[in-house]
Amino acid sequence: MRVICRIAHERDVEDALSLLDRVGQMREGAMAELRYWRVLEANGSLIAMGGIEYCGADAALLRSLAVPASLRGKGYGQLLVKELVGVARDLGAARVYAFSTGAMPFFTKLGWKRVQVDELVSALPDAPQVESFRKRGWLPTEVAWRAP
Question: What is the pLDDT of residues 40-67, one digit of tens each?
Fold first, then answer.
């Protein structure tokens, strides 16, 4: 199977949101700025996705990394993370963060470090996902990660 990584397009939104539903991730704010989202495509179908939230500071937030369970362990998540961290760095983000309560082995394998949620929130106080988690009262139970 030949897989390509590309910038998300408007035609990807419906499939991308459906993928988020299938993997149990929130839709809110997903695909808001398509230029910051990447999709993996195989045989004309969207198979994985992820994006960043960038608010013009020196930090960015990786979000909505979604790979179906049937395709995990094949390097697709790693490919997306590498691509998205590159996008963030190209925009000027010296620090790239992520929230994840269930992907400790994945982020650890990639060399990401677990950090205090307060560090992420201080770096990205106006990021849409931070604001959403704050409104829902989820920040105290979240786990934050920083890219190497």
Answer: 999 999 999 999 999 888 999 999 999 9
pTM: predicted TM-score of the whole model, two decimal places: 0.94
Amino acid 16 reads A
Residue partners of 75: CB distance under 8 A and separation at least 6: none
Alpha carbon distance 144, 95 (integer Å): 13
In 3-state terms, what secondary structure has residue 69?
helix
Please state whether 92 falls in left (phi above 0), alpha (psi between -120 and 50) or beta: left
State both tokens at 127.
């990021």
What residue ranges define each of the domains in the chain, with the CATH number in brackets?
Answer: 3-146 (3.40.630.30)
Nearest to 143 by CA among 99, 96, 95: 99
